[in-house]
């Protein structure tokens, strides 16, 4: 809990709210969210429990978001959440500078990078992005990352258009955005791998990604 207070302090001077979509897993998320709600108020910390989600966390989060911009970040310990909080004001400033519809964190541009991955994982990620760049020409350097800022109305429109699941979903969001003429800015980020848990990336996910890539190539 103490480090969460520090991360929230990064939003000083920005009108914000944090929406926590939890699936009821016994990892202490609800307990921490309840404590934060008591400290910062229910107008800043909005917590929602969905035991049997009918859609993605994005859809549920949008229902309760009151601002003009939505920053998406994973909270399943797949990477260091602290860094996402630190970068959030940066992507917000980037949006203001270029009036972008989307600002995406990129590991493959400027001083961005990845820490904690073995060579196999790095090759898979680089290979996926290379194939996507060659086939789809998306206009963005990192297609599989999930740390992004969206205009709320843009995110809603993209969610209506996107049909992919899993790892292909993030890629399709950027490809559809380019197809619809939305502007995309990028901010270099350092990605630090999970400390707890295990990655779900395996053979089935790789095959699914390749199928999704070919489908997008054929339909965009």
TrEMBL record:
Its cofactor is Mg(2+); Ca(2+); Mn(2+). The keyword Plastid does not apply. GO terms for biological process: dolichol-linked oligosaccharide biosynthetic process; GPI anchor biosynthetic process; protein O-linked glycosylation via mannose. Its main location: endoplasmic reticulum. It catalyses: a di-trans,poly-cis-dolichyl phosphate + GDP-alpha-D-mannose = a di-trans,poly-cis-dolichyl beta-D-mannosyl phosphate + GDP. Pfam families: Glycos_transf_2. Keywords: Endoplasmic reticulum, Glycosyltransferase, Magnesium, Manganese, Metal-binding, Transferase. GO terms for molecular function: dolichyl-phosphate beta-D-mannosyltransferase activity; metal ion binding. Transfers mannose from GDP-mannose to dolichol monophosphate to form dolichol phosphate mannose (Dol-P-Man) which is the mannosyl donor in pathways leading to N-glycosylation, glycosyl phosphatidylinositol membrane anchoring, and O-mannosylation of proteins; catalytic subunit of the dolichol-phosphate mannose (DPM) synthase complex. Component of the dolichol-phosphate mannose (DPM) synthase complex. Belongs to the glycosyltransferase 2 family. This is Dolichol-phosphate mannosyltransferase subunit 1. It comes from Notiomystis cincta. The gene is Dpm1.
